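Pasting as-is:
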Amino acid sequence: MAGTTDATRREQLTAERDRVNDQLKELGIDRSSYDDGFADSGQVTAERGEVEALSGQLSETLSDIEDALAKFENGTYGECESCHQRIPEARLEAMPAARLCIQCASKRR
């Protein structure tokens, strides 16, 4: 059962990685499409800020996904990076790229 679950999670992570990469590519195109001569430069600046914030979040998500996929390769997928205990299946189901168990994640907030 765990092998099937791991295979499914790996597929989910791979699909999510592809989706995030596509979004980052789209943002790159959108970012260069702003018109610097636009009359409301405040709006352009705000939109650029939003794109940069979203890009940063997507890049962070992509990093988490890449790390999770690497953990499959080295046999540590599903292990909390802090306490090194097994992350509960329910958490991995909700967040396949989770780095921490719920207890350790709660301590960091």
